[in-house]
Amino acid sequence: MKKIVSLVLSVLMVATLLVGCGNKTETWTVTCPWAPSGVAAMVSQKAASLSTEYSKDIILVADAIKGDAATVNTWVASTKASDPELVFAGEGLFSITSILDPAKLQFTYDDFTYVENLYSSIFVMSADTKLGIDSIDSLKAYLEAGNEVSIATNGATGSEAFLAASLIGAMGYGDQLKLVAYSSAAEAAQAVSRGETNLAVSHQSQILETYQQGGVTMVCAFDAEDIADGPFAGVEGVGKHGYPFFRNRCFIMARSGADANKVAALKALYGEILADAEVADWLSNTMLLEVDTMTEEQVLEHIENVKNIVNEYYDLVAN
Amino acid sequence: MLEYIGPALQQLFTIENFLWMNVGVFIGSIFAAIPGLSVILCIILFLPFTYKMTAIPGMMFLLGIYCAGGYGGSVSAILINTPGTPHAATTMLDGHPLSQKGRTKTALRAALYASTFGGIFSALALLFLAPQVAKIAAQLGTAEYFLVCLFGLTIIAGISGKSLIKGIISAALGLLISCVGADPLTGYDRFTFGNVRLYMGLDLAICLIGLFALVEILGKAEGKVGPLKLDTSKIKTEDKITKEEGKRMILPAIVSSIIGVIIGIIPGTGASMASWFSYDRAKAMSKHKEEFGHGSIEGIAAAESANNAVTGATLIPLLTLGIPGDGCVAIMLSALMINGLNPGLSLFTTQGDIMYAIMIGLIFVNLFMFLQGRYLTDLFAKIVSVPQEILTPIIVMFCFAGAFSVNKSYFDVVVILVFAAIAWIMKKLDMPTVPILLGLVLGNMTETNFRRALLLTDGSFSIFVSSWYCIAFLVLIIGAVSMIVINKMKEGKKGEAN
Amino acid sequence: MKDFIKNMEEKLDSMGAKLAKKEIKIPTDLAAAIVFFILGIVLMLLVPSQVTVGKDEVVSGAAFPTYLCYIMIGGSVLVAAQNILKMVRKEPVETKTINALVEIKALIIFGILVVFWLICNLTELFVLGALWCAVAFLLFFRCKKKSYYIITVAFAVGIWAAFRFILNVNF
């Protein structure tokens, strides 16, 4: 018995020492504060799986802790500038929560160092097929006739809710809008296809199946121009009609004060991963996203744009 | 269905999946065999491990624990006349007497064969019935879902213990706890007391560790600790199930498996009810009624096949409607959702390959349960003898490590301590804690669908009778409530008569 | 050392014996009704300050918790009424014996758990807390077998190592 116990302890200690011994490769944990099934977590996982192919010095490990602001609060509080830790943050935190519920955020943009933005996603609006709404003009005509519109969104105060409010509000029919929050994008898509709501706003990938089965018609895309390719090619962009829009982006951030050389190495690594043909193909064909590397100036501009929209249509979303 | 089988088999047949199945079956057998430890506790303790896995290995691991729990409880029931799990009490009625006749191995083998048969029967029922139920589920809207939740809440009657009203009060507490965090329809905070950690609400797994696992540790204050004295030499006897006995097991095993599946589909009923009901049926049908209670092989076959036939069936309402069939699968809901598998709706289409892999995997879980039961039963019996002095701190360490690892925060450890204290007080007041679990699971879904339904109709309750599904669910609810009232009245009369 | 331990154990035994005699019988249903009645009232009073309500909500976020408080209060009143009626009729009511020794022991276990949390939280080293847990529980059970201490301590290190290095939980 004693021999067995001694053996177990020795093995444990040796294993601990071996793991503790440093080597040159640095493992960076990339925390995604949203559901592991979400778009950001999946992209992070994909990037992490390729990190060893493109770098001998950096290993990326994707982690998803659903908690939104709470997860990022914890991350900021427990992460030092020297820690090999990265976190995702998007316009939801910097532009929406910061205005709607600033008490929830125990951080500001200054607590981070920007590394890279991996992708951008164009939100789309779909409609119940029975209504015959398949363009911005037909939506406008429907509203002009005095009809109220219920719009299914994923979450009560997320990007989708603000995009829906900004479009209907900018058309001048804010008082005819009823936002109906669902707990997932899949539920919101089902709701519009069943006719429970008139419209829904979602990522393209989340409505694709319902659209292909003829459950919904497409109304518009929240972008400057029409969607150029893919299954939603031709869906018109609201920007063309002068309505507000923004794309969904999720920035990878390090803690402020992080070593500039390491940040540059990480940015370069992400750049290489995103340039990989397989990744680009997966992002555009499977996830219906666009590779979208950005400079910090562009990021700040994006945050400011969304903030303006949130401030303008605040009353329509948060009654 | 067929289009998913190929990709599902591809996803299922990995070394990782089969390894986790076996680890789950092994751990589940041990936990179920040790009286005082439960399958639900085991699933709670090991749930955080699955957060790091993908959906299929995670579910295979938990299903391994869950299914083995169905069989494991019979080991101590047969050997020491103490059921390792509540549903094994029925097995004990005939298992232990048979063991006392010097036929321990026969009793254990009968339990194992019946468990495996029931388990595979149930897995096949899941495979063929779940997709059909899912098709109906896809047509359900917000109003229908609210009524499904309401129907789910009638489970309280089955899990309240002596007092239905106390069960309702406990469920109300669980539902109130589910309100903590951001309001799902408006995003405003509720009951957060300004604490940032509470904005996302309380994690189900965290609450359960406190309510069910840590409270068991506090319970050590009540009892004496000591190893269980098991005579493992009993297992090494040379007795066998005879051909005649084998034939006699077939009919009760088939009938009990059917009963187990039907009872399993109805949320809130559970394995114990299936075992007792099947045992009663088997006795009524048997040509050897006099043997029941004195070591009847048919009794063992009926009880064990029924309680294992529940395992797959309880997953049907879980996967298709999000309504857990019992406490164990309620916890599995976390493992599914952490992997983005939201029950109901499009689960069987968009994630069809994963779903079918899990359902087919359940058949293999039962096969491995059979193999481990066949060759490792004496090992399980030896592990059952682990001293409580060693087991107790180990369980605490798992509780703390598990709670921390969910959100990587020691705040969650405080939460489990608070819930342990609540559960302890409730234990002292004879308040059932399982309805809290039900409230926690169904709370958000019930409230969100109720409010959303009224939002869609500007406050008109007519939405709750707007479809045939709504009317069907209303009839089911009225039927269930009537049954509960009639049963309670009967119980009251019986009480008065006694 | 052995004498010291023996003395300690004797003292504890005599204290335990005295505490074990201290018992009170409580009518569980009535006690539960009072506790949950008070809890229901407190929670209902907290709703206005803890739940923000929007202007035009069809069913506000406060409605559901308020209904639940009503159910809790109503249920408690029913249980209490049933119990009082039984008492008046001199019918037997559900009771439970609360033993001082059991409750003190439970408090000690709870104390061990709180210290476990404190050690982990302050040092950010789970393994230290786990070692405390292993030793504290064995002492609580008055375990004298060295092998048990070695096995439990090995498990403490093993569990930490499994979470730390296999599951990558940094604690």
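Residues 2-143+191-418 of chain B form one domain.
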